[in-house]
Specification:
The protein has ten helices and no strands. With 171 residues, it is mostly helical. The protein folds into two domains: 45 residues, no CATH class; 124 residues, Tetratricopeptide repeat domain (Serine Threonine Protein Phosphatase 5, Tetratricopeptide repeat, Alpha Horseshoe). The termini are far apart. The model has no long low-confidence stretch (mean pLDDT 90).
Length: 171
């Protein structure tokens, strides 16, 4: 909703007003205002629209996810670098259902910009491996599968990785 820099300015103003409230002796107001400023600081690091898009993705609502992502008009200006990575990651998941070339572009851009969680990086590499398999690029798919296997520390993707490795042997 707000630009990333505007969020920090609002948080700074609220903190300044809370210091004024502490000086005036209104301790309760000051504490409340500091807690209010923490919301804007949190939203600087976690964009609210991307959070809502992830909620739609969790419900398997790809159209709803796309609608939320379309509300971000200028991703480079409105998002931090990691948030841009997740913006592209979500677009890659959406396009993996319809347009593999577009999905591959988005996943590669997401990996280049960076993703915070190892699971997300592993999932992006696994999706890229699947796209490479469908395009008959066996060496690239094998390399991406091995990287995804290393990143999957909680063994959440082991079944998918094993299934893709078996499919790779058939190619």
């Amino acid at each position: 909703m707000f630009n990333k820099n505007l969020k920090l300015i609002i948080a700074g103003l609220i903190i300044a007003f809370s210091v004024y409230q502490f000086i005036e002796g209104n301790i309760g107001n000051g504490i409340f205002l500091i807690l209010l400023s923490l919301i804007f600081i949190f939203l600087y690091f976690r964009n609210e629209i991307i959070l809502l898009a992830f909620l739609k993705m969790r419900k398997q609502d790809l159209a709803g996810t796309k609608n939320w992502l379309d509300k971000i008009k200028n991703p480079k200006g409105a998002l931090t670098v990691k948030q841009q990575g997740y913006y592209n990651y979500l677009h890659g998941i959406i396009f993996s259902q319809t347009n593999l070339t577009q999905a591959e572009k988005y996943f590669k851009k997401a990996l280049k910009l960076g993703l915070t969680m190892d699971y997300d990086v592993a999932m992006a590499k696994l999706s890229l491996a699947g796209i490479s398999m469908q395009k008959r690029r066996k060496r690239e798919a094998t390399m991406l599968l091995n990287e995804a296997k290393k990143l999957d520390k909680n063994n959440m993707l082991t079944d998918q990785i094993k299934m893709m490795q078996q499919q790779l042997k058939k190619i």
